[in-house]
Amino acid sequence: MTVLVVGISHRSAPVAMLERAAVSGDELVKLLHEVYDSEHVAETLIVSTCNRVEVYAVVDKFHGGVSDISELLARHAGVQLEELSRHLYVHYEDRAVQHAFSVACGLDSMVVGESQILGQMRQAFRLAQAEGTIGRGLHELIQQALRVGKRAHAETGVDKAGASLVSVGLAVAEEHLGELSGKRALVVGAGAMSGLAVATLDRAGIGEIVVANRTFERARRLADGARAPARAIELADLNGALAEADLVVSCTGATGLVITAEQVPPAEQRRFFLDLALPHDIDRAVGELPGVSLAGLDDLRTAEEATQALGPRAVEAVRRIVADEVAAFLSAARAAAVAPTVVALRSKAAQVVDAELARLAGRLPGLDERDRAEIAQTVRRVVDKLLHAPTVRVKQLAAAPGGDTYAAALRELFDLDPKAPEAVARPDIEGPAS
């Protein structure tokens, strides 16, 4: 069983294809179970964000796993497998670990260094736990990826130097509107991205924030948390708010357009619309209206530009952390993989000793307890000393690439039952994400 990642992201596909592949809500849960129930998958979780859909899985066969997952992604996207496959990327074994750690650190994000991905990976982890599709393999991988992401942000300050998609989008807005202080902003949606938008607008000294959402109570809670003058409105009142706003930020997660060109009334002031949703919330025709500028995910800065903004030193420091953590994780995983074989070997040796001591007791019934105990201790000490060097050495060798062959050799040399290591392996872990 090994880890496989099959995904599509802003690096591999245009926004139009990402919109087709995007999955959330009930559809995400459905896809999660379909992947889990496929022939070659033992565990799975799905990371679905505004610029990536990635399926992490523990599989028994590489080609079978890739085929199963790719077909399910194509079916949910409503596109032919051949068309989607051109935009898919696949990582396996060591490369899958490296990819997971890089994603958690923000190295693979549209804006390098953004930290929102940590929360998104944690959310994917918890959903997989709740749905029962995750086991020991992915538990350890994702938990460690989250720890590596936290370490990268703490030690390099990459999250402070960089910016989230919201920050980049608002920087583009400032290029069109000038300073945001004193401007009127409309935020459509009340999810995590909308919360980031409100917080960032607050820091920019925005004059007023209006939050529109289908659930009024969620909009009200978000507005109440702002320091700037803020109020909540029903989504039904959106058209009136559009007439007053200088800046509109939309990120709802709806499956259809939320703002069309017909909804946007004429205005004397320049206006900027920022669409951070996938699929798009805002009709592209809005950007063709007089005095209106529109930017979506595909208009924001590329990862390469963001890397330059961060500075090569910060990014290189994060890459070194990822490389070190990947090496340590793989070494520990290989050493852990041989542990059940070592335990099975020692268990078999103990059974042999017990059987021989029982045979001795039957042949020498008059042996007193003191002598019997001394003989038993001597025999066990001899066996322990004989097994010590090979078991210690096999653990050391197993930590290197290809180390699983040493465990296989140990099983062959000592004629261990192939199922014995599985029987003594610890059970899958179930616990909260850190």
Can you put this structure into words, describing what you see?
This protein is of the alpha/beta class and 434 residues long. Helices cover 55% and strands 14% of the residues. The strands form 2 sheets. It has a 6-stranded parallel β-sheet with strand order 7-6-5-8-9-10, sandwiched between helices. A 4-stranded antiparallel β-sheet has the order 2-3-1-4. Helix 10 (192-203) links the parallel strand 5 and strand 6 (208-213). Helix 5 packs across helix 14 and helix 14 packs antiparallel against helix 15. The longest helix is centred in the C-terminal third of the chain and has 52 residues, at 312-363. The protein is elongated. Mean pLDDT is 86; it is low at 423-432.
Supply database-style keywords.
six-stranded parallel sheet, 10 strands, 17 helices, 434 residues, alpha/beta, four-stranded antiparallel sheet
Number of strands: 10
Strand order of the largest sheet: 7-6-5-8-9-10
Largest sheet: 6 strands, parallel
Low-confidence stretches: 423-432
Estimated structural class: alpha/beta
Terminal CA distance reads 25 Å
Q: Determine the strand fraction and express it as a percent band.
A: 5-15%
